[in-house]
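Researcher: I need the complex structure. Ligand is 3,4-dihydroxyphenylalanine. Inputs:
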Amino acid sequence: MKEQLSSLKKEFEAQLKHVSSLLQLEALEQTIFGRKAGAFTTLAKQMKDVATEQKKAIGEMMNTVRLKIVKELEEKREALQREEMKKIAETESIDVTEPHLPKEAHGHMHPMSQVEIELSELFRSMGFMVLDGPELESDYFNFEALNIPPSHPARDSHDTFFIKDHPEWVMRTHTSPVQVRAMRQYGAPLRAVVPGRVFRNESTDASHEHTFTQLEGLVVDTDISIADIIGVMKGLLTGILKREVEVRLRPGYFPFVEPGFELDMKCLVCDGKGCNVCKHTGWVEMMPCGLVHPEVLKAGGLDPDVYSGFAFGLGSMRLVMQKYGIEDIRHFQSGDLRFLKQF
Ligand code: DAH
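Model: Output:
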């Protein structure tokens, strides 16, 4: 065990010398501390087989090695960040003599940002934290921690952008991974929303984009029920759309909630008559939601016998389309001023 520990440390230090980017550093960190196959994690799991009289000495050594590696990782991270900042400072220069832009060339906030801010304020007023999470996410948080193991068919519906040579990373396909991150960081009780960009490798049309936004919601407490979901959802939709909306709940399947629902809203673009946005059904899927699955609570470090929760994933771009009667989701990222100037 002692030899294994010291060769792990040597191997780590040898590899650390070759690390030249933050991404490589994260990958190296995974090979050491990854929850499943990390070299250190694997050794730590073997502690239970160590003879009692050796436990103390080996335990201490493990701790020293761990602290040393964490410190070296941290130092390298800081150095890389400093380098990056330096590069930026060298390539960007500000010319203070340049005349400023004429008034009409000034921009304004994108309609998506405006609504995202409005949503964040609305939720803050209800006692929610507003969190964010990484767009380049680990397979573990994007799928596994959400009760979607490698062979699970639900992965197919998540047309994922994978990262070349890095099977352990994905561009996050949804904001749900932040559910588990939040539970681990803040414990319970918890109220949080997470606005952010997500990515899907699928062909685009009036209601599908490769890059779009969601707003994840999560509430964890000691006795949460479906009535709580319905109350919050209605409050949210009327608060943002500033008019009465008609909604319906259908059962929906998502591995990380049980039971799961699909909350639909009567299409405001065509008033339920049928159009491109609602795929001629008169209804738009607004918000999948449900009670947080016990496995997900466990992944977040919470005891499902004590805590329950609800979660929802609002398609916030779709909401903005409904709010302003925008008929094609591709306008948002087109950079077309004729579109943007209307807001
Ligand atoms: N993350 C899911 C998706 O993008 C949406 C979702 C479904 C989020 C149910 C939730 C939920 O929080 O409870 O497909």
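Model: Summary of the prediction. The chain has two domains: 2-90, 111-340.
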